[in-house]
Amino acid sequence: MSRLRIYDDQIPGTPLAEFHDHAAIEHELRQAGVRFERWEANEPVRPGASQEQVIAAYRGDIDRLMEDEGYQAVDVISLKPDHPDRATLRQKFLDEHTHSEDEVRFFVAGAGQFTLHIAGKVYEVLCEQGDLIGVPDGTRHWFDMSEAPYFVAIRLFTNKDGWVAHFTGTDIASQFPRMAPHPSVAALAS
């Protein structure tokens, strides 16, 4: 179940509010200037589907977003818990950073946790299968995939060169909860 927790950025131990209803999450994030949507596949996406098959299943929503927001490129990234570089990949985006272009991710499978630092609040967003999040350029945030990562995500870009992390140098990310391994990982083993 998707989840949003909102914290005061000076009080990391206790959320001010927590939401599980998608409409409520979308509303709260929209107030903070962050896009959050649910997408449905046009056709079934089977395990092991190619990048082209995954993109084709969501082509309508992808085209709408590309036309509305001017994104120029789309690709698919996937990661499983047995990836040999999972610890290094996890560490890469665990500290607070910004990008010079929007970070747009749609979760086809699995989950990931975006944590956004906006105007004195911290928005911890657990994104699951069917969730799209659009983090505007310049937004302070960090991303966690847990110690047992599992996700397949569609990424949209205006310019892939703009998707370089610019770290803020603060330790705020280490003060807030990390992502626990997601239940979808268990489904991989069965």
Automatic annotation (TrEMBL):
Binds 1 nickel ion per monomer. Binds 1 Fe(2+) cation per monomer. Ni(2+) binds at H97, H99, E103, H141. It catalyses: 1,2-dihydroxy-5-(methylsulfanyl)pent-1-en-3-one + O2 = 3-(methylsulfanyl)propanoate + CO + formate + 2 H(+); 1,2-dihydroxy-5-(methylsulfanyl)pent-1-en-3-one + O2 = 4-methylsulfanyl-2-oxobutanoate + formate + 2 H(+). Pathway: Amino-acid biosynthesis; L-methionine biosynthesis via salvage pathway; L-methionine from S-methyl-5-thio-alpha-D-ribose 1-phosphate: step 5/6. The record marks E96 as: May play a role in metal incorporation in vivo. GO terms for molecular function: acireductone dioxygenase (Ni2+-requiring) activity; acireductone dioxygenase [iron(II)-requiring] activity; iron ion binding; nickel cation binding. InterPro entries: ARD, ARD_bac, RmlC-like_jellyroll, RmlC_Cupin_sf. The record marks R105 as: Important to generate the dianion. Keywords: Amino-acid biosynthesis, Dioxygenase, Iron, Metal-binding, Methionine biosynthesis, Nickel, Oxidoreductase. Its EC number is 1.13.11.54, 1.13.11.53. The record marks D102 as: May play a role in transmitting local conformational changes. It is an enzyme of class 1 (oxidoreductase). Pfam families: ARD. GO terms for biological process: L-methionine salvage from methylthioadenosine; L-methionine salvage from S-adenosylmethionine. Its cofactor is Ni(2+); Fe(2+). Fe(2+) binds at H97, H99, E103, H141. Belongs to the acireductone dioxygenase (ARD) family. HAMAP family: Salvage_MtnD. Catalyzes 2 different reactions between oxygene and the acireductone 1,2-dihydroxy-3-keto-5-methylthiopentene (DHK-MTPene) depending upon the metal bound in the active site. Fe-containing acireductone dioxygenase (Fe-ARD) produces formate and 2-keto-4-methylthiobutyrate (KMTB), the alpha-ketoacid precursor of methionine in the methionine recycle pathway. Ni-containing acireductone dioxygenase (Ni-ARD) produces methylthiopropionate, carbon monoxide and formate, and does not lie on the methionine recycle pathway. Monomer. This is Acireductone dioxygenase. It comes from Dyella thiooxydans.
